[in-house]
Amino acid sequence: MNNITALITGASRGIGAAIVQRMNIENIDVLAPSRQELNLLSNESIDLYLKTIKSPIDILINNAGINLVSNCQEVTDKNIEETIQVNLVAPIRLIRSVVPYMIKKGYGRIVNISSIWSFVSKHGRLTYSATKSGLDSVTRTLAVELAPYNILVNSVAPGYTNTELTKMNNTESQIEEIKKKIPLGRLAEPKEIAEVVYFLASESNTYITGQVFVIDGGFVCQ
User: Fold this and answer.
1) What percent of the chain has a predicted confidence (pLDDT) above 90?
2) pLDDT at 1 over 80
3) Strand partners, 156
4) Which of 81-85, 118-122, 134-138, 216-220 has the lowest mean pLDDT?
């Protein structure tokens, strides 16, 4: 995969950082903007960042996301707006920007990082679940639209993963209880998610598109 450029959002930690490391092993040129460089809460920031990109994008990984836990009676307008902006609007705007080059080249790979909360639900995940379900719908629609141009679009839906976000939304005792509910008995490691993302984004993937891959140790099977 020489002369391939990947844009990865939310790459400073967790799953995003693991994806960057996996891409680096394959000598892929990676653009992993910081929040200061690319603030997904701001459409202006998105547009300005896109103008700074010098290399055409062959791979887009929409990994960045926020999960502001709040039940339906307490969810604020700010919570709703920010979650929709970061988890759904920003990925669509980035896709819209990179697709013209992919169409011209006749090649492209887009991987959206979804969540098991697109399939199942939990208290306080109202806006998060809604946006991740929306992102999976984006994946399916684009898979159909872009297939004639050899652009493959898929989602990866991680379950409980050993990241700062998981630890932020769950106490240590809660995480131990969660592990008991996972058939494999543990959280996923970010590198395990990154392996699947890399395959879907690579030239080895020649026929898979429009799919949502759940990586959760069997959690949603119960």
Assistant:
1) 90
2) no
3) 113, 213
4) 118-122
Beta strands in the chain (DSSP E): 5-8, 29-31, 59-62, 108-113, 151-158, 212-215
pLDDT tens digits, one per residue of 44-62: 999 999 999 999 999 999 9
User: Which residue is listed with tokens 């547009």?
Assistant: 47
CA distances to 34, 197, 201 from 205, in Å: 28, 11, 7
Residues 6+ apart with CB under 8 A from 108: 58, 59, 60, 98, 99, 101, 102, 146, 149, 150, 151, 152
Beta pairing partners, 152: 109
Q: Where are the domains of the chain?
A: 5-159+195-216
CATH superfamily of 5-159+195-216: NAD(P)-binding Rossmann-like Domain (3.40.50.720)
Tokens of 117: 């909360």
* CA atoms within 13 A of residue 130's CA, in its CB half-sphere: 19
Write out the catalytic residue numbers: 128
Residue 120 is which amino acid?
V
